[in-house]
């Protein structure tokens, strides 16, 4: 909530899991006890550029046991004599004030826990898991399609074998009939052929004429 002309934090909702709160460049001059009540797990608080004028205004922050970084840049309170020593004495849980610790060692550029980097890593890991699951599903679909193709090819081969067997059986039957015809006497064979062609034997016709 940066630079929104905020006068107080009295309307802040209950945020038990909130770790980092940005309130810089507003017009807040007090009422910080609300933070202790509604953001009990706060670790980083930025009040830079507000109307905080004295050390006592910060006293409610003693009730934030996890607070270890506080920024008060461009607040009038920073102009007080022994400002840093006084704040570290009032808030012993603090590690960094205005970006430096009590020994003037600069704070790291970012805090993974406060910036939510851990959550981003979890989110990215979750996306990777989803991608792996999608890849597995794609592979299963491809395998199924290959199995279906193999089944179709197998069926086509079986059909081809069946057709060949049927053709061979028909050829065998025709050969057997031809062999049986060859075994008949010549007259009977000729008669059989004429019967197959639907014609009568000339000898039979002569017998009919004699009758």
Radius of gyration: 50 Å
Write out the strand line-up for the largest beta sheet, numbering strands in chain order.
1-2-3-4
Query: What can be said about the biggest beta sheet?
Result: 4 strands, parallel
Q: Please indicate the percent range of residues in DSSP E strands (runs of 2 or more).
A: 5-15%
Explain how this protein is built:
With 211 residues, this protein is mainly α. The chain has helices spanning 33-38, 83-90, 112-115, 117-183, 186-197, 202-210, and strands at 20-22, 44-46, 69-71, 96-97. It has a 4-stranded parallel sheet, with helices on one face. Strand 1, helix 1 (33-38) and strand 2 (44-46) form a beta-alpha-beta unit.
List the topology elements.
Layout: E1 20-22, H1 33-38, E2 44-46, E3 69-71, H2 83-90, E4 96-97, H3 112-115, H4 117-183, H5 186-197, H6 202-210
Parallel strand pairs: 1-2, 2-3, 3-4
